[in-house]
Amino acid sequence: MGLKEIAKMTGYSVSTVSRVLNNKSKYASSKAEKEIWSAAQKLHYARNDAAVHLKTGKSAHFSGHGPYRIGIVMARGLESLEDEFYQRIEEGIRSTVLKAGHQLGETFMLRTVLQNPQCLADINGIVLIGKCNVHNLTSLRTICKHIACTGMNPYYMEIDQIYCNGEHIARTAVQHLLSKGHQKIGYVGECNGDVRYFGYRQAVKSSNLDMDTPYVFDVPQTAEGGRQAARQYLVSEDCPTAVFCVNDVSAIGFIEALKLLRPQQPLPAVIGIGDISKSLEIQPALTTIHLPLWEMGNISARILLDSIEGLHSIPLKVDLPYKLVCRQSC
């Protein structure tokens, strides 16, 4: 299947389809990108590198194996499919797989794969995106031999992984709030097993601040989770003056809920993680930690393909850099 079939299936022009699949889609809407990538997966699209290199005059490099079919597994729930954080990682994976001349498999939910392992029967390797507990990851490895993991939670086991260290990121975020003079710093996100919560606790403890439970809002890392935290914040007897949210989605939900529920009151300082597009659009613009999301997907796909071809025999761990982006919310 080629570009014309995808264009016919989605209703977009061949040129728009080409720009999206070749990561040159800055003028395409997010809706168009999502529909085009979905169609490419359903049609098992693989880029014709021979034609591309014939057109450009560059020689193609083939490994002599494949094409492989690469799938994506989301460790979290269905909400991750609508989260720009995960979508940008997916874009990096898909673009790299296609440029290497391989095929895109489907995007699966982890729960679906564990309940029905047969759905990976024609998949040669997968990239796992997001936090997964050790038990489920061990089970996943019995289903698929070749796995590369990416996200913010490092795994202390022998497996390929590409990550930005969530514990270090959390410490950076809290230290930024401390540098602004805040002594009451809250946490918005999941507490159980998340390294960002551990990093938050360590940063607070090392600064000799009180670790008061009213400052911790244990909620899902979604927009609704942020709204839940805002409602809890408003009924707290001792409110934090600054809040660290584990991702931009929950931070934006938190800010929007506070603005709606108490429009005349000043907001606490808020910092998130991800630097998604809405973090710049919201008022006040969100201070956040920028992660190289596309590169996380790109490098994960490259390492996965190398693993399938036997180009490395030891598990690789790649810790990618991140940076603080200061805006008005702090």
TrEMBL record:
Gene3D superfamilies: 3.40.50.2300, lambda repressor-like DNA-binding domains. One of its GO terms (molecular function) is DNA binding. InterPro entries: HTH_LacI, LacI/GalR-like_sensor, Lambda_DNA-bd_dom_sf, Peripla_BP_I. Keywords: DNA-binding, Transcription, Transcription regulation. Coiled coil: none annotated. PROSITE patterns: HTH_LACI_2 (PS50932). It holds the Pfam family Peripla_BP_3. It comes from the Bacteria. Residues 1-56 form the HTH lacI-type domain. This is LacI family DNA-binding transcriptional regulator. It comes from Ruthenibacterium intestinale. The lineage of its organism: Bacteria, Bacillati, Bacillota, Clostridia, Eubacteriales.
